[in-house]
Specification:
Layout lengths: L13 H13 L6 H13 L5 E4 L4 H9 L7 E4 L6 H8 L3 E4 L11 H7 L4 E5 L10 H11 L2 E5 L7 E2 L2 E2 L6 E5 L12 E4 L3 H11 L3 E4 L3 E4 L10 H11 L2 H19 L3 H5 L16 E4 L6 H10 L15 H4 L9 H9 E4 L7 H15 L1
Parallel strand pairs: 2-3, 2-4, 4-5, 5-8
Antiparallel strand pairs: 1-9, 6-7, 8-9, 10-11, 12-13
Helix pairs in contact: 1-8, 2-8, 3-4, 3-7, 9-14
Length: 372
């Protein structure tokens, strides 16, 4: 049998493995000099903006909402097609999630639908860059400025993506990234938040470690309710090794994405009824290569058939508003038809930096067999 081809796999080199050993031997394994070094490198990449690292790319969004003062009585607009954390953090701060439907081509938030969903209670927008593809950033920030809204960018999948030549995170408002194991670069688990100024960065430090402020030799105070969200030096040293390879990883993913389109051919959509992603290779980091299946085959059927070829397939994501937690808050089928169709039929094909063109050709041949 041919080897198993997973849909995702982290790229960890021997130098990074050795660096983790050095940290373990150093005696300093929680937040320390490696966290500071990782934050400094990220800040330089994002144009000098303040960056703080955390133990997940979920708490980063919650903390951004808290820094923005968003809570009880406020509404935050986001997409139904994301990992459920994007909406859960809105509930965590006591605010109300409001969903807007997605664009059928980009599968990101439809910003016209966002505009229609704004009310006097709306305080923020959380756009998600599905598969690493940014929304129209100019339109997003014009809309936010028009209505005096904060923007918390869920850029969990978008490290290495750009807009008009600028890295996502180097401009805008709050920008949250994830370094979870299947992201383009990883710290095993973790994330970072790009902030606007030193005052916000100081608040982020408080929120990530119990609200504590230290001063002098033994001075300590707590003036806000924080949590336990700090990144360890073990995670940070993995991040340093990964970050050094970001450009190489992004270039390889774009190369693989191009080969998917070339190998599938210009008539793939017409002959199979499947929908490919937009063929864009300058701004997107190609975190995922996703297709929307034709209605004549269910996602479980497709995933089972691809498994017969020893090929792993994921899906990202089920519609958030149809989970029980959100149904109990009044959401139901039919509210966001584009998101519901995409969420039912979308699949993520193998895409990771260790793949080569032969792997892509193997996936494409299997898809033609299953869908052709």
């Amino acid at each position: 049998m041919t080897r198993h081809l997973p849909f995702s796999q982290p790229l960890i080199d021997e130098a990074t493995i050795a660096a983790v050993g050095d940290v373990l031997r150093s005696g300093w394994i929680t937040s320390g000099p490696k966290v500071a070094a990782f934050e400094a490198q990220l800040s330089a990449y994002f144009g000098g903006r303040p960056v703080r690292t955390f133990n997940s790319g979920t708490c980063t969004m919650e903390i951004a909402l808290r820094i923005a003062g968003i809570g009880e009585g406020d509404e935050v607009i986001t997409t139904p097609i994301s990992w459920v954390a994007t909406a859960n953090v809105i509930l965590e701060v006591g605010a109300t999630p409001v969903f807007a439907d997605i664009d059928p081509i980009t599968r990101n938030l439809d910003l016209d639908k966002v505009a229609a969903a704004i009310t006097p209670r709306t305080k923020a927008i959380i756009p998600v860059y599905l598969a690493g593809k940014p929304v129209d950033m100019d339109k997003l920030y014009a809309l936010a400025k028009q209505h005096n809204l904060r923007v918390i960018e869920d850029a969990a999948q978008a490290i290495g993506s750009t807009w008009n030549g600028q890295p996502i995170g180097s401009f805008g408002d709050f920008v949250s990234f994830s370094f979870q194991a299947n992201k383009n670069i990883t710290t095993s688990e973790g994330g970072c938040l790009v902030l606007n100024n030193a005052e916000e960065a100081k608040l982020a430090e408080k929120y990530r470690l119990q609200g504590v402020t230290r001063g002098g030799v033994d001075g300590i105070d707590v003036d806000i309710l924080g949590g336990k969200f700090n990144m360890t030096d073990i995670a940070a040293v993995i991040g340093l090794g990964q970050f050094a390879q970001l450009d190489k990883i992004t270039a390889q993913r774009r190369k693989l994405a191009r080969h998917y389109f070339t190998t599938l051919g210009a008539d793939f959509e017409a002959k199979t009824g499947a929908q490919l992603p937009p063929a864009e290779f300058e701004q997107t980091n190609w975190h995922l290569f996703q297709i929307v299946l034709p209605d004549r085959i269910t996602r479980p059927e497709f995933m089972t058939r691809m498994k017969e070829f020893n090929i792993g397939v994921g899906f990202h994501y089920a519609p958030i508003h149809l989970f029980t937690l959100y149904r109990e808050r009044g959401f139901h089928e039919g509210m966001f038809p584009v998101a519901e169709h995409v969420g039912k039929q979308i699949v993520s094909l193998p895409m990771f930096a260790q793949m080569d063109e032969a792997d892509v050709e193997r996936v494409c041949a299997a898809m033609w067999e299953v869908l052709g």
